Amino acid sequence: MSDAIAICETCPRHCRLTEGAFGACRARHAQGGRVVCANYGRITSLALDPIEKKPLAFFHPGRPILSVGSYGCNLRCPFCQNDGISQRGGDDVATESATPAALAEIAGRLARERGNLGLAYTYNEPLVGWEFVRDCAREIRARGLLNVIVSNGCVKAEMIDSLAPLLDAANIDLKGPSQAYYDWVGGDFQAVCRTIATLHSAGCHVEVTTLIVPGRNDADADIAAIASFIASVSPEIPLHITRFFPRFRLLDAPPTPIATLRRLAETARTRLSRVLIGNC
Ligand code: SF4
């Protein structure tokens, strides 16, 4: 048996995998000495959603978008809202197969019949299966439709650089104001900041979401730091400040008080022109 190690270059975890082993995201594995996408074309969800549900508030409002999800995620947020697909992989999760061409065909039909904008890659973390996003995005572009990504943004620069030209809009989570916060969720703060800046520079419409978890990132200084970073990229980037509800491993924390969200939104508005409260 080979004990060669393949290193994944998709995200800052840099998983080192022996042949056949899966990465921490459960969506990638070592095969033939390389790390490949194991969730390619394995679909857990497909739905025509309002664009506002992504959330994107300033990108073709009122229109629907076909939304596709697979499984796997490279973060470990204790408050995950989608752990049934994000924290599972392999045979733990029910999937159906779909090719990029087949999804683009459905997206095209829904565009003609129901005003569908294109295809949104969402529900789990789509960039752990970036090869599928890339191939779908090319098919979607070829039909004159739009590509939208909803992501934690915690990926390596080379990967997002290559994908950015294919993306028309993105909602990226900026979960907290520092590496200390990202240590809690298993991510890399600077990588997420870089993804937001890269997508914006590439001409992609970017909105940012911050889930406010009581006692973790609900201080004025936290949202001020987040808003200051976003403003350094562009003060026009919309920020969605969203409400936490107990989920996954964080079941004994209370929901975020609405008054807290309003207070933090006012703080963010001193730096950003478009701040919204959501998930209330
Ligand atoms: S994308 Fe997955 S396999 Fe690759 S480094 Fe990140 S967690 Fe590991």
Describe the fold and architecture.
With 280 residues, the protein is α/β, with parallel strands linked by helices. The protein has one domain (40-278): TIM Barrel (Alpha-Beta Barrel). 30% of the residues lie in helices and 22% in strands. The protein contains eight helices and 14 strands. An eight-stranded mixed sheet has the order 6-7-9-10-11-12-13-14. A two-stranded antiparallel sheet has the order 1-2. The protein has a two-stranded antiparallel sheet with strand order 3-4. α2 (100-114) crosses α3 and α7 crosses α8 (258-269). It starts with a strand and ends with a strand. The mean pLDDT is 96. Iron/sulfur cluster (SF4) binds at residues 8, 10-11, 13-15, 23-25, 28, 74, 128.
Overall CATH class: Alpha Beta
CATH topology: TIM Barrel
Strand element count: 14
Identify low-pLDDT runs. none
| SSE arrangement, N to C | EEEEEEEHEHEHEHEHHEHEHE
CATH architecture classification name: Alpha-Beta Barrel
Straight-line distance between termini? 53 Å
CATH superfamily: Aldolase class I
Count of separate DSSP helical elements: 8
Bound molecules: iron/sulfur cluster
Total domains, how many? 1
Radius of gyration: 18 Å
Query: Hey, roughly how much beta strand do the residues contain?
Result: 15-25%
**Strands ordered across the widest β-sheet:** 6-7-9-10-11-12-13-14
The mean pLDDT is: 96
